[in-house]
Amino acid sequence: MPLPPDEIQHRSLDRLARYIKEAEEILASWDAYSGEHTDADGWPHDPTAYDTRQRRRDADTWRAFTRIRSTAASYLLTADRQLRQLPGTAAAPHWAWQLKELRTSLDAIHTLQAEWPATLNTPPEPALPGTEAWAETQAERNAEAWHHLYTWAGHGHAVLDIHTATQHHRPRAVPITTAVATTPVPRPAPISRRPL
Q1: Domain encompassing residue 100
Q2: CB 47 within 8 A of CB 53
């Protein structure tokens, strides 16, 4: 039996919330590592180990995002539509800007992923899975994407917040008993227009 649309959307947004949480945990772990393994000026004590750990941060964030990459554009389309339907008082002023940032980052992520196969086949030799060349090109793609992936962790809350606001501002059916008991509001008298 197919799921109702609301349940499908709820599960989809749960995946986005899980990505945000996981990306924040990855960043917190990285910040803790970086703080312990750098000097007062921010230089790593062991540059090779630091670089390896940074690559792991980038790869972990990329891997976490792959679970929502195919649905990320639909999150933005839905959030745009919902934002337009919200009354002005229910919408936070920064939501439109955050959706724009998310769209820009998603475009960059898609571009990096689309260019990656061509990068693997760049001379002098193709990069095959399991080779150093493969690992290097993958690490470069992940490093270039990291800022955009973290933008989704930082601003992805806007999609969830817009959805929540929409749930609280849906028009409700007025119960019949309430409608009967309600006293009509008097309308102001029309303004007569007299020639000057």
Answers
A1: 5-170
A2: no
Tens digits of residue pLDDT in 119-159: 777 756 667 777 787 888 899 999 999 999 999 999 999 99
Assigned domain for 190 exists: no
pLDDT tens digits, 62-100: 999 999 999 999 999 999 999 998 888 888 999 999 999
Tell me how many domains the chain contains.
1
